[in-house]
Amino acid sequence: MVQQDTTTEKGTPSATYTWSNPSQRPKQIEDLILGVERYDPTQVQVLEDYLASQFNEVFYDPLANLATLKLYQFNPDLVPLAAENPSNPIEAIHDSVTVKILLLSIAHRPFDSDFSLGLSMCGDRMSTLVTPQGTLTLINLLSKLSSTLQSRKFNLFWSLLSSSEFESLWPLISIIKDFDGLIRRSISQSVSSCFRSISLIRLKSYLGLNDDQEVKDWIKEIGWSLIEVDGNLKAKIPDNSDNRPVTTVTRENTTLEDLQQILARSVVA
């Protein structure tokens, strides 16, 4: 059996491995989501409790979260038809879990397909006949945030997030420790794949920060450096395989006999 390589050249866990097997995942959850028990509706409480630990310990286990949504999808009777108190759109625990799973996917992997995959599992419930309007509104707001980040419209994202339209999401977002920091780290990774250096003004707007000192502190935190170009401060981004691609030259030797065969075939054609 071929053993899968789960580390990078520097010896750190690869992104794919971390995504599919986070170090914080307990063995009980590992056995559950990789075995037939993931289809057992009686296990939903275990997965819901595990979701709470992802919020408390600030990590992300998409496979476990997708298993939760899959249980809801296969067992509609698990999901109440409406919240008991219409003034609280996510009072129903399953509505709350769904929204939290979608929110976690934005916080930890905003540029990947996690959100759209989770949302696709809610397709049968995206109606006021089975889901409170308040919950649908929250999901629509999350969809708007996700599409904005996917489009790399970082300025618009921070503007939307702080607007009154998204005020109903603020209590949920506050549950995630350092939500803004998680988003900024993902944005920084996206920027590092496109830039070798970037002005502080531009970076500040991308990160949703208010003043230059905050940007400087962030640059130091993520291991970038400051440089001065024509009297203007810029953030210098370390070289990586995306922002400094290496040119490779591929040579192929062709024998005279091979060349004769190629020419002969072209004549016949």
TrEMBL record:
Residues 60-253 form the PCI domain. It holds the Pfam family CSN8_PSD8_EIF3K. Component of the eukaryotic translation initiation factor 3 (eIF-3) complex. It comes from the Eukaryota. This is Eukaryotic translation initiation factor 3 subunit K. PANTHER family: EUKARYOTIC TRANSLATION INITIATION FACTOR 3 SUBUNIT 11, EUKARYOTIC TRANSLATION INITIATION FACTOR 3 SUBUNIT K. The keyword tRNA-binding does not apply. Keywords: Cytoplasm, Initiation factor, Protein biosynthesis. GO terms for biological process: formation of cytoplasmic translation initiation complex; regulation of translational initiation. GO terms for molecular function: ribosome binding; RNA binding; translation initiation factor activity. Belongs to the eIF-3 subunit K family. InterPro entries: ARM-type_fold, CSN8_PSD8_EIF3K, eIF3k, PCI_dom, Transl_init_fac_sub12_N_euk, WH-like_DNA-bd_sf, WH_DNA-bd_sf.
